[in-house]
Amino acid sequence: MSKLNGQGLARAQIITAMVFFGTIGVFVKNIDLASSEIALYRAVIAAAVLLVVLLVTGRLKKLGLMKKQLPILFFSGVAMGFNWILLFEAYNYTSVALSTLCYYFAPTLVIIASAVLLKEKLTAKQLVCFIASSAGLVMIIGVSGGGSSDLIGILYGLGAACLYAMVVMCNKIAGKTDDISRTWIQFISAIIVLVPYVAATNGFHISTLDSKGMFYMLFVGVVHTGIMYCFYFASLARLRGQQAAILSYIDPLVAVILSVLWLGESISPVQLLGGALILIFALANEVKLKKDKKIVERLSE
Fold this sequence. Notes:
It contains 13 helices and no strands. It has 301 residues and is an all-alpha fold.
């Protein structure tokens, strides 16, 4: 019974996290700062929240066990920071829906990166998922109804997907580590690089935010990133990979719904179909069915 209750709590945690992740575009659009500055403050606030969690749970001592992984985690933290910048910049040029759908091309990129860099065998199923997801991306880019601005936003979203895929690959290479500790190191790494980057580009303008903008900035840092990352990682400890993979796609669904119904942003039927292809086949690649092996064998007969 306790195991079932634990799984119920885990499902509630990951669903809550994904719903909040899906709303981040709405919040970012209400913060009148450069994308790089928003990414920096997001990392600073979230790092403070996770530091409290590390201290309270006694996980801070685990940081000393991750010395060998520090270089790769630093690199992934830098990629994470610039991944946020590109995603937030995508929101400035195109809709939250299209930005998010392009961003979810990342799992497809991981398939190819794993085959090339980690020499993982590319299965027939993965190849089909890659081709179908790529077709979906072409459908989104090919129907750029908002003109050059819309296309720029789509490309920013795709760039963010590439950087997120890089983060995933770095975490694979780093091996099994404590999730909260690893993420805290990545936040700190992002801060180390983003501080000089922001200073050299747009500068610091947080003092210009009104009370509404400050509320949204704090909410993105504390809730969207600090608390929801903790919810997400806590849920992964109790859920099977397949369960987590399915529930994680609540994020883009919420983002698309809010983009169209809340923000009043437009998306064409063809782009919506292309986004559906990306999500469906990215999910299909992550879900492992017992019959997969038999299906492949039958197709090869």
